[in-house]
Amino acid sequence: MTVSAAVHPKADQVEPPYAVGATLSLQERQYRTLKNGDMFGIFDLSGNSLPYDGGTEGLYNRDTRHLSVFDLTIGGGRPVLLSSTLREDNTALICDLANPDLTRDGKVVLDHSMVHVRRVRFMINATLFERIQIRSFAHEPQLIRLEFAFDSDFADLFEVRGTPRARRGTKQAPDVDETSVTLGYVGLDEKRRSTRLRFSPTPTALDGGRATFDMEIQPGQQALIYVEIDCNDTPAAGTRDLRTHYLMSLVESRRWMRTRSARAAAMESSNELFNEAIRRAIADLYMLITEKPTGLYPYAGIPWFTAAFGRDALITAYQALWLDPSIARGVLAFLAEVQATETSAAADSEPGKIVHEMRNGEMAELGEVPFHRYYGSVDSTPLFVMLAGAYYERTHDAHSLQKLWPHLQAAMTWVAQYGDRDGDGFVEYYRATGSGLQNQGWKDSYDSVFHANGDLAEGPIALCEVQGYVFAAHRAMAVIGQALGHTAVAALHDEKAEALRIAFEDKFWCEEIGTYAIALDGDKKPCRIRTSNPGHLMMTGMIAPDRAARMAEGFMGHDFFSGWGIRTVASGEARYNPMGYHNGSVWPHDNALIAMGLARYGHTDAVAKIFEGQFDAALNIDMRRLPELFCGFARRRNQGPTFYPVACSPQAWAAAALPALLQASLGLSIDPAARAVIFNTPKLPSFLDEMILHNIRIGDARVTVRIQRMGDEVAINVRERQGQIHVVVRS
């Protein structure tokens, strides 16, 4: 085989220019987001997208901002915000507005809050639909002017993130008729991207950047305006009635979400605030799912990561596996389809490797950023196999696994031949060029792997959690191989898993800090710092119980536990920074995976503490929505968590964190061979007295169970059962 030369970055190397910039905090303004398919939108609370330096607002499709300005004014003034909310299922944004004081010649001619404006918008099929309802509560007829200012910079998402460009494509002159405007752009990749805005009724005036409606409204009467913004490469013909199309598309949008989310088990509890949080989490999870020909695929997060990521989707599907295994099936099928088949230095790919990130924008098409189809993650490949094993254990879907088997074999060949190039038994990461990601685990900041004195580790680097994923991948191959009749292959992977476990315990355990090193550097020296990374080992079952107990105790201490969750790096370590992306912050998905591992080793009190901290955090966040991460400052009385300035929200694996934490708390597992839903030492957190889980499925059978606190114990009863399925409680 041919192995490309790897670049071993020096420790003083800084982040590449396509890292997310933080010149403007997303926390300075409150936003509302919508997503459907490859389209998403970021709007202020009034539903507008306003132009300002460093701003992220706008309407995006396939990594391009198709509308950078969409600004509604009333009588030339900014509307007064009354309320702004997303539907509980995330399908529509609803904004209630009022007119400001309207003046003429320095005199107020209409007091504020005499005209009510309600905006309802949603998106489907790469098109945003909006209905604006205007109603007058004045005592006399009013002539009201509503104006929509609009523009598109057709910026690539990486430009919005802060990556500079030397050259750009060409904006086309707007194409305007009586009711529509088409904005166009021809990129350096020679692709034409367009945005078509249509209005109904016919505007009083319309040009390439503004639609004006002068409307006389009688007391108590209302008027309606419909807007359709089509971001398809070839916009649909403009002969459809906008009102009819709006109503038909609204039904389609809600049906789409209802059909997808109906696959999942549903939850309700005695705590209405928890119900709000879990409903939002489930709605976020399904909003972030894009339906591909291979099945469901969760995109990582809005705004920066609204694309197919390997690691994020694999972990999200793993967290949600008990809830809806069809997500895992779709993720595995898609990643198998785009699995690497050749070696490419620019893409950091080798045969069998699982993709890290896929982008469709102009800069990715041109190679200005390496992410058109980029394979620079060391963990996606073993996670792919690990999820396949977990999916089989959840479903016994041998048919899907039979189709995946060649891809699983190719992935494990990559682990052996490319992942472990030096033959020491551990998987390390390399990058083939200086343009790829410097660190290729989930903590991929340039400064996330370091020694006790603060020196950055030099590669090739063997991360501790990656070895756990490889261990789990070997175990998965053994289970799947046995099920498919490949008994010799199964036995071989069992042997490899045990050999890796023994070698790992010998090389990674650091007695003096009571945990495992985050990594071995290029000289095989352990990075002896206390991080959250070893927490992922517990969910794989790789480590010795006594060492898991040491780690559990450490995670619950003040150095690690902020009051909201476990920090990525313990306070007191050389590069600890509670405001750092990976060096002291708190990530919900990280905490959920650690909790799943703690549950496996029987540390139920620690699971409850994490669950309670994360739920308390959600209570202090808009819409009860856990973000990608928040800062790791210690919890303060009567204050919520400190926000991270450019965190994605919603984020798929953060949305899946609460369901995963509930699973860990209840010790919930599913045995399809026994047709059993199993609760192993179940425990309810302090904020829940009762929990009902609806429609937990095994094949075509399903069961609904009621879980009640009874002192220090819980009682579990079957409320409804369809098909062959039963419930087992183990204490």
Automatic annotation (TrEMBL):
One GO biological process term: carbohydrate metabolic process
Coiled coil: none
InterPro entries found in the cross-reference section: 6-hairpin_glycosidase_sf (IPR008928), 6hp_glycosidase-like_sf (IPR012341), GDE_N_bis (IPR032856), MGH1-like_GH (IPR054491)
Domain spans labelled Mannosylglycerate hydrolase MGH1-like glycoside hydrolase: 312-612
Signal sequence, start to end: none
SUPFAM superfamilies: Six-hairpin glycosidases
Putative glycogen debranching enzyme N-terminal domain ranges (all copies): 34-227
Database matches in Gene3D superfamilies: 1.50.10.10
Pfam families: GDE_N_bis (PF14742), MGH1-like_GH (PF22422)
Protein name per UniProt: Amylo-alpha-1,6-glucosidase
Species this protein is from: Acidisoma silvae
